[in-house]
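Supplementary Methods. Inverse-folding protocol.

Structures were first reduced to a C-alpha cell string of length 553. This string, shown here, constituted the complete conditioning input.
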C-alpha cells in the first residue's frame, strides 16, 4: 500500500493499528556495557511482543545495532540494511523508541525518513509520538531531531568538562600502554626494568651522536627488547622521546574536535598545547635531559624537512641544466682552489656511476653566467620587443572582468527565489496547496539556489585571483629594463624568471661545450664555447612557439 493510500485511510478516521501492515522494528544501544546489552534485549522483546499481539499486523524480523553511536549512520550495518530492505519492499512500517535511536543528526533523520517515505514505508518514533504517516510529522520531526542533535552537542561538552576535571583531580588520562609505566585506576607507577631502557634512549639521543635507528640497535645489544622480544620499533622510540610525561609533565590539547557528529579531529600547533609539571606523573628522566634530547630532535626534523627543498631553491641553476644524453638534471658540486671555491654542475648519472654512466663534461657556474650574459647583450636590439611581448601577454591575460556585477546579478536571483519560497510556505500553511506540491516546488527552488550559489562561489574565486595577479605596467616595464641590463653580469633573479632550461648537447667534451638555451618566453638559442676561450653564439634567439619560427627583429 502506498503512503498516499495509507494517509487516506488515516484521514478517514482509522488508526494505524487498524491497517493491515508488515511491521518491523529498529533497536540500538550506544555502548557494549552489560547493562546496555540488557536494555537492548528488553527493547527486542518489547517490540517483538508489541507487533505480534496486533492481529492486523504481520511481524517482520527486526534490525539491531550494538555499541554504535547515533551521531553517524555510515557505521550502522543493521540500520543501512534496513534502509535497503525498505527499498526492496520487505515491510511497510518501522517502530523505534525515539528519534535519537534513529539518528541524532537532524540531517540524517530527515534524509532517511524521507527516503523511507519515498519507498512507501512509515516510521513510528514511539516515545516522541511521531508517526511519519501523519501529514504534520515532518515539521514535528525537524523540531524533535533538532533537540536530539543539541543533546549530543551538550553531551560532547560535558565529556570535555569531565576530562578536564579528571586531570584536575590527578587522574592520568590517555593511552594505557605507556612504555616504562604501569597504569592502574588512572594512576602511573614506574616499571624499573622498562624505565632503564627509557633513560638510555634519552641519554644516547642527547649526545647528538645517535639516531633513532642506531639507538634501536644499541638497545638490543644491551639486552633491552620490546614486550614481544623483538628489536625496539623506531616509531616507539620517537614517541618516547617526544612524550613530556617522561619528565613528569602533563601534555594535552594536542587535538581539537572539528565536528561533534563525525568526531573528526585536527592536530593543533605545538604553541597551542597545554603543558605543565604534574605531581601525579612520576618522572623517569630529568627536565634538563628531556629538553636537551628534544632540542636535537626538533633541529633534525627541521633539517629533514628543508633538505630537499633547500637544495633546489638555493642555487639559480638547480634543475635548469639538463643532460642531452640522459635527460636528467645536472647537480651542483664544488671544489676549492687557491682562488677560492669553484662551483660546477655535473650529470646526476655521472655522480651515481662515474664516467661509465655519463661522460659529458661538467660545466662551471661562471661559464653559464658568461654564456647567458653574452647571449642577452648580443640581442640588445630585441630588448624592446621582449619587454613589449611581456607587457602584451600580461595585458591579454589580466583584462579586468567585472565580476562584482555578475555576482550582484546572481545574488538578486537568489533573493527572488527566496521570496518565492516564502510565498510557497504561506500557501502551504493556508492549505492552498498539498504537501506533495510544496515538497516538489520547494525542492526545485532549493536546487536552483544551490546551482546559483556554486556560480557565485566560482565567480568570487575568479575575482580574488584577478585581484591577486594585477600588475602595474609602468613598474613592471621599469623592472624589466633593469633586469635586462647585463653589462655587469647576470643576476640569479633573471635566471629564475627568464631561463627555462639549458641542454648540454652530446657532442660536448672537456674542451668544447655545446648548449641549447630555452627561455620561458618561448625563445631558443644555440651556444658554443671553448674552455678558456670566448663565447660564440651560433644562432640568434628564435621564437619556438607555434607559427613563430621567424627571427625576432
Amino acid at each position: 500500500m502506498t503512503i498516499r493510500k495509507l494517509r487516506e485511510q488515516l484521514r478517514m478516521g482509522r488508526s494505524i493499528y487498524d491497517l493491515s501492515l508488515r511491521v518491523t522494528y529498529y533497536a540500538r544501544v550506544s555502548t557494549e556495557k552489560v547493562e546496555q546489552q540488557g536494555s537492548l534485549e528488553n527493547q527486542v522483546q518489547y517490540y517483538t511482543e508489541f507487533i505480534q499481539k496486533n492481529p492486523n499486523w504481520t511481524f517482520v524480523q527486526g534490525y539491531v545495532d550494538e555499541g554504535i553511536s547515533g551521531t553517524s549512520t555510515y557505521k550502522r550495518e543493521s540500520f543501512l540494511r534496513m534502509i535497503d530492505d525498505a527499498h526492496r519492499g520487505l515491510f511497510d512500517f518501522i517502530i523505534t523508541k525515539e528519534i535519537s535511536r534513529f539518528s541524532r543528526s537532524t540531517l540524517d533523520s530527515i534524509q532517511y525518513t524521507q527516503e523511507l517515505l519515498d519507498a512507501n514505508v512509515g516510521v513510528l518514533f514511539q516515545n516522541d509520538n511521531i508517526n511519519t504517516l501523519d501529514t504534520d510529522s515532518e515539521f514535528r520531526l525537524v523540531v524533535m531531531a533538532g533537540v536530539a542533535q543539541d543533546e549530543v552537542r551538550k553531551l560532547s561538552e560535558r565529556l570535555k568538562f569531565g576530562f578536564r576535571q579528571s586531570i584536575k583531580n590527578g587522574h592520568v588520562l590517555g593511552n594505557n600502554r605507556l612504555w616504562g609505566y604501569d597504569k592502574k585506576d588512572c594512576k602511573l607507577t614506574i616499571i624499573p626494568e622498562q624505565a632503564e631502557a627509557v633513560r638510555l634512549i634519552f641519554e644516547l639521543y642527547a649526545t647528538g651522536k645517535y639516531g633513532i635507528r642506531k639507538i634501536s640497535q644499541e638497545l638490543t645489544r644491551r639486552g633491552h627488547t620490546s614486550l614481544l622480544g623483538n628489536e625496539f620499533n623506531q616509531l616507539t622510540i620517537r614517541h618516547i622521546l617526544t612524550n613530556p610525561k617522561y619528565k613528569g609533565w602533563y601534555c594535552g590539547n594536542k587535538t581539537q574536535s572539528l565536528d561533534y557528529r563525525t568526531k573528526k579531529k585536527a592536530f593543533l600547533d605545538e604553541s597551542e598545547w597545554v603543558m605543565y609539571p604534574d605531581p601525579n606523573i612520576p618522572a623517569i628522566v630529568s627536565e634538563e635531559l628531556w629538553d636537551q634530547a628534544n632540542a636535537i630532535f626538533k633541529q633534525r626534523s627541521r633539517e629533514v624537512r628543508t633538505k630537499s627543498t633547500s637544495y633546489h631553491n638555493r642555487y639559480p641553476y638547480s634543475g635548469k641544466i639538463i643532460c642531452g644524453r640522459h635527460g636528467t638534471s645536472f647537480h651542483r658540486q664544488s671544489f676549492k682552489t687557491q682562488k677560492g671555491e669553484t662551483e660546477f654542475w655535473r650529470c646526476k648519472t655521472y655522480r651515481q656511476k662515474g664516467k661509465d654512466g655519463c661522460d659529458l663534461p661538467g660545466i662551471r657556474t661562471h661559464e653559464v653566467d658568461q654564456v647567458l650574459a653574452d647571449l642577452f647583450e648580443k640581442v640588445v636590439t630585441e630588448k624592446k620587443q621582449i619587454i613589449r611581448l611581456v607587457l602584451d601577454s600580461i595585458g591579454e591575460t589580466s583584462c579586468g572582468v567585472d565580476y562584482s556585477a555578475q555576482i550582484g546579478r546572481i545574488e538578486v536571483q537568489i533573493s527572488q527565489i527566496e521570496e518565492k519560497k516564502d510565498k510557497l510556505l504561506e500557501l502551504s500553511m493556508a492549505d492552498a496547496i498539498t504537501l506533495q506540491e510544496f515538497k516538489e516546488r520547494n525542492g526545485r527552488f532549493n536546487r536552483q539556489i544551490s546551482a546559483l550559489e556554486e556560480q557565485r562561489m566560482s565567480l568570487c574565486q575568479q575575482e580574488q585571483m584577478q585581484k591577486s595577479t594585477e600588475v602595474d605596467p609602468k613598474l613592471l616595464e621599469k623592472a624589466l629594463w633593469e633586469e635586462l641590463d647585463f653589462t655587469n653580469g647576470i643576476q640569479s633573479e633573471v635566471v629564475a624568471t627568464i631561463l627555462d632550461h639549458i641542454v648540454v648537447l652530446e657532442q660536448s667534451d672537456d674542451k668544447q661545450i655545446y648548449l641549447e638555451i630555452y627561455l620561458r618566453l618561448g625563445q631558443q638559442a644555440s651556444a658554443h664555447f671553448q674552455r678558456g676561450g670566448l663565447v660564440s653564439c651560433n644562432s640568434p634567439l628564435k621564437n619556438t612557439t607555434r607559427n613563430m619560427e621567424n627571427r625576432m627583429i
